[in-house]
């Protein structure tokens, strides 16, 4: 939708952008900001099931989206930890409440963002184990999620794009400094009903994310070229991408300078 001009900006992730950038005619999108500075996703499992480290997935059931990159990353950390990925049972991931699914034994392990699924386990009182991909293999410390923009829009309206990103940066800087107030703004602005009865989760999630928005970067949104390129190089070397996307798909020039 963003590449087609139906939106000037959208939310994406570096891993799922790869397929669009590697086409013979790449989609016209560029990541213009990292929403959080580091990859905070990983594997959530029931406490005590032995999946507090990747090798523990051997012989267990994992709920998958069946994405080649997802499964390759999982295989990398499981086998690298001395496990056997071929012994992991894969089932479709149609789960919306990860801790509840674990508590009901619908699955043994699920990929989550720690700032939502992991926090939700605490809110729901479900004892869980968790490991982060970026802690196991530094190459997996890629950018997820990111803000992308339409390339034609950026070329034709650079000043407007920079003004939008300056305003966006101010919003995330506010959220970093005022997580409880930012969470309440989100709750008050929800007209879909999707956050009903989730106020505690939203506030605890924002408390966690407030330290992740800027983290160790010099300012919000900055994309580290070395980390971005390291992940795309890994995709290419492992035949998960038809093109070497080193240096492709991101720009810091629209962020406040």
Task: Report the mean per-residue pLDDT as an integer.
Answer: 97
CATH architecture of the largest domain: 3-Layer(aba) Sandwich
Got a strand count? 8
Amino-to-carboxy terminus distance:
28 Å
Shape: globular
| Whole-number tally of structural domains | 2
- Given as residue ranges, the uncertain stretches (5+ residues, pLDDT < 50) are none
Determine Rg (CA atoms, Å). Answer: 19 Å
Structural class: alpha/beta
CATH class of the largest domain: Alpha Beta
Secondary-structure element string: EHEEEHEHEHEHEHHHHH
Largest sheet: spatial strand order:
5-4-6-3-7
> Under CATH, the topology of the largest domain is which?
D-Maltodextrin-Binding Protein, domain 2
The named CATH superfamily of the largest domain: Periplasmic binding protein-like II
Q: With helices defined by DSSP (H or I, 4 residues minimum), what is the helix count?
A: 10
What fraction strand? 15-25%
The percentage helix is 25-40%
Q: Sheet bearing the most strands, described?
A: 5 strands, mixed
Structure write-up:
By secondary structure, the chain is an alpha/beta fold. It folds into 2 domains: 126 residues, Periplasmic binding protein-like II (D-Maltodextrin-Binding Protein, domain 2), CATH 3.40.190; 100 residues, 3-Layer(aba) Sandwich (D-Maltodextrin-Binding Protein, domain 2), CATH 3.40.190.10. 40% of the residues lie in helices and 15% in strands. It is built from 10 helices and 8 strands. Helix 2 links the parallel strand 4 and strand 5. Helix 4 crosses helix 9. The longest helix is centred in the middle third of the chain and has 20 residues.
